[in-house]
Amino acid sequence: MAIDATDARLLTALQSNSRLTSEQLSEIAFLSPTACLRRVARLRSEGIIEAEVSIVSPKVVGRPLTMLVLVSLERERADIINRFKRSIRETPEVMSGWYITGEVDFALIVTAKSMEDYEAFTSRFFYENPDIKSFKTLVVMDRVKAGFSLPIEINDA
């Protein structure tokens, strides 16, 4: 799945604004609007573009609290790790989750309506799970940047 400079220009533009029209993309990629649509369709079908998302204001939807939670499992066994990965995917309060190396096993981004709501979440998600050894919560004071954009180098050779 190699990408060329034209793909890189399209991907960079779409990461900033996934609602660009084919005419706007054609100006960026130096192609016709139809050729741009074909390229974007190929990028989606090959899984290079995984999803299109909108970043929603947590305060507006009543979830003003965000926490970074570091999780250690009791044991590192494939069944325990896979079970916890599944629980991350199935829990809407967990916005993002990573299986990581180092002192802890997972890092999660969790959203809550209030501290009471987060306390109820921790009871259900962590304390009732026998596979959890410990967790540490870091409360986010200010969301400085939110997004999934990757830097893509454009090599016009």
Description of the molecule:
With 157 residues, the protein is α+β, with helices and mostly antiparallel strands. It starts with a helix and ends in an 18-residue tail after the last strand. It has helices spanning 5-16, 22-29, 33-45, 78-90, 115-127; strands at 65-73, 94-99, 106-112, 132-139. Helix content is 38%, strand content 19%. It contains 5 helices and 4 strands, in the order αααβαββαβ. Strand 2 (94-99) and strand 3 (106-112) form a beta hairpin. It has a 4-stranded antiparallel β-sheet, covered by helices on one side.
Largest sheet: 4 strands, antiparallel
Q: H/E element string?
A: HHHEHEEHE
Rg over C-alpha atoms, rounded to the nearest angstrom: 20 Å
Question: Terminal Cα separation, in Å?
Answer: 19 Å
Q: Look at the structure and give the mean pLDDT.
A: 93
Structural class: alpha+beta
The geometry reads as elongated
Beta-strand segment tally: 4
- Quaternary assembly: single chain
Q: Determine the number of helices (DSSP H or I, runs of at least 4 residues).
A: 5
Low-confidence stretches: none
Which range best describes the helical content: under 10%, 10-25%, 25-40%, 40-55%, 55-70% or over 70%? 25-40%
The fraction of residues in strands falls at 15-25%
Strands of the biggest beta sheet: in what spatial order? 2-3-1-4
Concise account of the structure shown:
This protein has 157 residues and is an alpha+beta fold.
Write the layout of secondary structure elements.
Elements: H1 5-16, H2 22-29, H3 33-45, E1 65-73, H4 78-90, E2 94-99, E3 106-112, H5 115-127, E4 132-139
Antiparallel strand pairs: 1-3, 1-4, 2-3
